[in-house]
Amino acid sequence: MPPRHPPPVDAPPHVEPDAPALRAAAEAEADRRLRRIAAAFYLVAGAVGLLVANSPLGQGYQRAALNALAPLALLSVAAIWFLPWGRYRRDLFVAANLSSLALNALLVVWGGGWASPFVGCSFFATVFAALYYRRRLAGLVGLAATGVAAAPLLAGTPPPEGWGTLLRLLLAVGTTHLAIVFVAGASKDEIARLYSESGARREFAARLAYQAFHDALTGLPNRAWFAARLDDALARAARAGSTVAVIFLDLDRFKVVNDSLGHERGDRLLVEVAGRLRGCPGVGQGLARLGGDEFTVLLTDVTEADARRTAAHILAALGSPIRLAGRDLVVTASVGIALGGGGEDAAADLLRDADMAMYRVKQHGRSGIALFDVGMNATAVARLEREMDLRRAIAHDEFVLVYQPKVDLQTGRLAGVEALVRWRHPREGLLPPSEFIALVEETGLMLTLGRWVLTEACRQARTWLERWPGRPPLTLSVNLAAAQFRDPALVAMIMGVLDKTGLPTTALQLEITESTVMDDVAAAVATLRELRAHGLRLALDDFGTGYSSLSYLKRFPLDVLKIDKSFVDGLGRDTEDTAIVAAVIALAHILGMQVTAEGVETHEQAHHLRQLSCELGQGYLFSRPLTPEALESWLNRDQAAHPLPSPPVGTVN
């Protein structure tokens, strides 16, 4: 059986979001105008008829017949105002105008005079001229018709009923013609304007509908359209017992394109991506842009295999380079899939599930496909609860600091401490940074937490400096996160904390990871130089785990190089790790830096580091992180020759 491709989704029903109220108001106004004009015709006809029938002008006319037409005119006016004309009111309006003009003609012709045929023809000629041409032309036609009625006089033939009858007839004809010319002319102008306004309103409503349901940049349907179509698709799937799939894709590292090449070129990239997605097999009419670099595809009556196949086509379509600003850009995407169709499925839930699946791809390296499962929802709920707990923790001072000693490898004396943050969770106990730091960064709380850590650590270090004035001051090391390092107010914030706590700048060492400084080397160099100019010590943390080169390393104004634990682990056992550590220590000394080895856990590792002239060591061999009280007991004992054989009371994992 050949593979079944998902059929295209039908186009959405024509829905005009704000147009109904606008259209209803316009139609109501048009209806009132048309009714007023039509009623005016009948009233003029009735007035002329009554004037002719009930005055000396009516001598020789059938007065009873003329008077009978007046109530008919009033009934016509009532019908015009109170009957619902509906969608055909313009056609009925034209018919009413013509019939009212015919009534005017009958009012005069019913008198039975010798000029009646000419008068009747003149009225119809006048009305058509007034409705379809110009008012002036209608007047000329009316005069010509009157002249036709008076033609026998011009030929020298006297009127059979006498000159008085002829004068009355011409007066009635002229008066009625005059009313017809102006009222019919106004009707013609009004009809033209109403039809023109109606067309403009329809065009405006169509534009509103398009803008409400389409993305202005790519021309694709937008989030509102997709939500409406997904609701319809789920309802049909519930009745038919079929499956609906939502594919949610997000371009990887699109922000880098916007930041480096500019938003205009980023928009061009989105347009190109939209064009490629349109041509993907299986996408059909279900493609939409939700916003930013997020796109969705709606598939109906599909299986999981169909949805995965379409998602694979999408990744393949984006695989070839896109030429932009003289560069060939390779665009990748993270794709999430969610399946639904049961009666309990909601559009918002299915879209959320596909988004979760896409986010799972982001977490595992990007550029891939993931199908939603219920475990993802549980993870998302747990993450939301953790975020709420985190915000409460900052507001209620649930964070505490512990301090891991740094030992002089040659003397065994305590040379410094590194401040490390812990979360004293009310239900889960003391949590290490691995449990919350990533979430702090994602939620934008790092600047707030980082300032608190720096302030509390400097306050504590100042206390120790005052209690032990005679010993060499401890160097306090505080880690700077990437968000802090990029903050334009970083230097001002640090100097403000030092001024507030009274800690000397020489007693503070700031530790920055290798990946942080490599994000923007030029900006990093400028920031490091500014910090160094204020007398602060700078250390490069986790050296060797990132992607910096020696050419960059010599540009950074650093005081300390910290060797990562992954290299220290192999000292004395792995020749490559031993060679790397030896080379790093030698390089640092050549560049005028001190070296701190992280993760020292055995005496053998400490021995090798001393032989390689490494200045400081830090790790569980010396001590786990300590509470302030436990560290003070160490300071009281003032260990001078050997590292502690076992951690003192008050150690923290």
How many E strands?
16
Which strands sit side by side, in order, in the main sheet? 8-9-11-12-13-14-15-16
CATH architecture of the largest domain: Alpha-Beta Barrel
Strand coverage percent = 5-15%
CATH hierarchy class name of the largest domain: Alpha Beta
- Strand pairing plus helix content: what structural class? alpha/beta
Biggest pleated-sheet summary: 8 strands, mixed, barrel
The rounded distance between the terminal residues' Cα atoms is 60 Å
CATH homologous superfamily annotation of the largest domain? EAL domain
Helix content: 55-70%
Specify the number of helices. Answer: 24
- CATH domain fold name of the largest domain: TIM Barrel
Low-confidence stretches: 1-19, 109-122, 128-135, 639-649
pLDDT averaged over residues: 76
Alpha carbon gyration radius: 45 Å
> How many structural units, i.e. domains?
3
| General shape | elongated
Distinctive features:
single chain, 653 residues, alpha/beta, Alpha-Beta Plaits, TIM Barrel, 3 domains, 8-stranded mixed barrel, 5-stranded mixed beta sheet, 24 helices, 16 strands, 14% strand, disordered N terminus
Model description:
The chain is an alpha/beta fold and 653 residues long. The chain folds into three domains: 192 residues, no CATH class; 150 residues, Reverse transcriptase/Diguanylate cyclase domain (Alpha-Beta Plaits, 2-Layer Sandwich), CATH 3.30.70; 251 residues, EAL domain (TIM Barrel, Alpha-Beta Barrel), CATH 3.20.20.450. Helix content is 56%, strand content 14%. It is built from 24 helices and 16 strands. The strands form three sheets. Strands 8-9-11-12-13-14-15-16 form an eight-stranded mixed barrel, surrounded by five helices. Strands 2-3-1-6-7 form a five-stranded mixed β-sheet, with helices on both faces. β6, α12 and β7 form a beta-alpha-beta unit. α1 runs antiparallel to α2 and α9 packs across α10. The N terminus is likely disordered.
